[in-house]
# Entry
Amino acid sequence: MGARVQATTLAYAPFLVFDSCGDSEDSPCQVSGMVVDLFNLMARKSNFTWEIYREPSGLWGSMPFGNGTAADAVGVIGAAINHLTDVPLSVWGINL
# Structure
């Protein structure tokens, strides 16, 4: 069995939908959608397993400007910057 990866995200239907989550922030969620299908494919091809968690702040994330530091980053992006998650899972798309 390969590496275990922790992903953090927010719902973005229909691409990523939370089907159910545990009672606490530390409980992984059951998810579905196109992004999940793609990530499952990557996991099989790259030999890793993964769990996904809902970002408790409800923010996609941002970095502060000015005197802010990485520790001030928030949301899904902040979780990755501050090493609270391995993958800030998001919707991948291109607008044409």
